Amino acid sequence: MPRSVNAVASRTKRKKILKQTKGYFGRRKNVWTVAKNAHEKGLSYAYRDRKTKKRSFRKLWIVRINAGARLHGMSYSEFMGKVHKAGIELNRKVLADLAMNHPKAFEEIVNSVR
Fold this sequence. Notes:
Blueprint: H1 7-20, H2 32-71, H3 76-86, H4 92-101, H5 103-113
């Protein structure tokens, strides 16, 4: 009995991966085994970096809040402690945006927690 191979499904799977690796450099875009490995590695990096992105944005917000608070003679930790004690329900993302783009509003928050 002849060997049965589902060539249609195999080719479809390969075309799908090669379409997703379009734009990669060198053999990574057109050689099946290299492209498959590059694609799998890229997916694992994407998964990892979705977590890393959250960390790096939080770091950025903290730096911006610290810079804004220090303009008004207060450290970041002191400012955040007083914000929480005052019951101000603004997260770091919003506070960082205010510190950077709306310094008057941020100054009002600093004066209210003093």
